[in-house]
Amino acid sequence: MEYLKSALSSIKQNKGRSFLTMLGIIIGIASVIVILSIGNGMKSYVNSSLDDMTNGAVTIEINQKKTDRYLTPQNLTTIEEAISEIYGVSTSFSTYGEIHLKEDHIVNLLGGMPVMERELSDGIYKGHFYKKDDVDAARAVGIMDQSSAIMIFGTDDVIDKSVEISFGGRSIEITIIGVAKSDEEALANARKARQSGETAYYYHSIYVPYTLVTQKLGLNDERITSYKIYTHPGTADEAALRAKSVTENLLNLRGEGAVSIQSFASMAGMYNNILNVVTLVVALIAAISLVVGGIGVMNIMTVTVTERTREIGIRKSLGARTSYILLQFLTESAVITLIGGSIGMLMGFIFTKIAEQFMSFPPVISPMNVLLVVAISTADGLFFGIYPARRAAKLDPIEALRQE
Amino acid sequence: MPVLVDVQDICKIYNPGENEVRALDHVSLSIDKGEFVAIIGQSGSGKSTLMNMLGCLDTPTSGKYYLNGVDVSHMTDDEQSDVRNREIGFIFQGFNLIQSLTAIENVELPLMYRGVAKKTRMELSKAALENVGLGHRMDHKPNELSGGQQQRVAIARAIAQAPPILLADEPTGNLDSGSSKEIINTIKKLHGEGRTVILITHDPGIAKQAKRIITISDGKIASDEINPDYIP
Ligand SMILES: Nc1ncnc2c1ncn2[C@@H]1O[C@H](COP(=O)(O)OP(=O)(O)O)[C@@H](O)[C@H]1O
Ligand SMILES: [Mg+2]
Fold first, then answer.
1. Residue B12 domain flag
2. In terms of residue numbers, what domain contains B188?
3. pTM metric for this prediction
4. What is the ipTM of this complex?
5. Which residues does B contribute to its contact with A (CB < 8 Å)?
6. Is residue B152 part of a domain?
7. A373 vs A285, A290, A370, CA distance in Å?
């Protein structure tokens, strides 16, 4: 307590000098806080938005510029059996069409297999997803979002409703057997759009058995050049590599580089790698600024000790032990760096808030980083304060008292 | 009266070898509790060296020093600090107050090093400042006080934790004659209250205020006698 009071009053007495000494630490800590917060923000933004978008789905693609080979539905079954740790494999044929009712709507028919239900982030609201026998029989059944139902029909009570979809010249009638849940925001938007008659700007996905697209519509034959695997959380990368390897084996494409993984998770991994490098560089800058700042503190404390030699002599003559003098000066240097670190942190927060205005994601200030800054800047002062403090503590009281 | 200071055949030699200086040359002396002793001598005679020795700021080249029955001639720095804190109240020529601290904060220092709690510290320091007539200047910084007042703060600091010995080295050396008188009177008053006082000076006029006068010359004790002109 006494040490702290004495340190603060001494720093106050030399405000200008103390501030200049802190400058290095202030700048170092401020830039570290800014970059770490932005980095953290970017990391969690990228990860969470990629998670939302994919629900663990990874697309495997056969590049048609490099090979003309393709997979059959039987091949997909083989792949699904070869990779144990996944929910399933699905084709992904899609085609655009139109619905002409009170207004015109553009729809995207997504032809897949029952496992595609995993893409619905909030699950089924009414009815059910199509089953394997629907695929086998190529039934004209479909699932649409709650918000799409509201925009197209004005209600989400659409189970067993039939709707005609036209593709260029021809058309097909599909029975809605399931409605996927939409979030509140999407529902509100849908109601508003329906009321004001501005639904034309939206397009709607309808999930149907892939056989409907390939056989009944004949829009695609059954050449599969891309498919999706649905993975358990945290196993996407591993499963994707397995799928790629099995595909290469099946098509005899080993080493051709014709099969690629379109995984958002692996993109996230890449982002994270870049961020880790950035973090490392920042840590290096921080280390340098702390060393430079620390040397500044050592410098200024040595000057302080010289200036206060007489005071040290007085204190010793009155009975101050070596450890007391040592602690007094160590406290002073630690307080300087701690104040510097705190000012730096504050400025870091301010800059982070400013940066937030220009970014599409919020920076994340983690309490761990704050603790780290406090600990590191205190340790910095203690370390670089040792030399001058020892010098002060070892002064001979007679010599020190003789000093003017 | 019990013996407080017992110096036995002490030598202090600077620069041992060819041009060595014998600042203290086989000095022996003994001072009882409650005495008022002046140590007088020419400049360079070894007064300050003796005072550093008596005040446990320095250790002798040879000889023994018993303070309050304890051999303090060969101690570590921290042990010496503790002895100074416990046994000795210093009054220096240059006051030696810490400029950034107020009067009462200066007086508190030795109590702080002894580990006295804040509240008791404040009470003792206040009492000491009132004793030297500075009860109304407690929160002033040294540069807001006159020379005489500063020296009285230093005296308060020396007596606050009631050490057995008051050791004053030319306490009036930096003061005008009016303030000098005031300080000497304060010191006499403290002696009257039962304290042991050792007063170092080159001024015979000041030495005459003491009960016993020791004259030192070339590091040796030249004379040691009771002052016939002493007025209590
Ligand atoms: N640190 C030192 N190194 C060398 N010589 C010293 C030192 N301190 C004192 N002396 C010498 O010792 C002698 C006594 O000095 P001092 O005790 O200061 O005398 P006084 O206080 O009576 O003037 C002087 O000759 C002085 O030059
Ligand atoms: Mg002297």
1. no
2. 34-59+76-226
3. 0.69
4. 0.94
5. 52, 55, 57-58, 77-78, 81-82, 84-86, 90, 92, 96-98, 100, 109-110, 112-114, 157
6. yes
7. 14, 11, 5
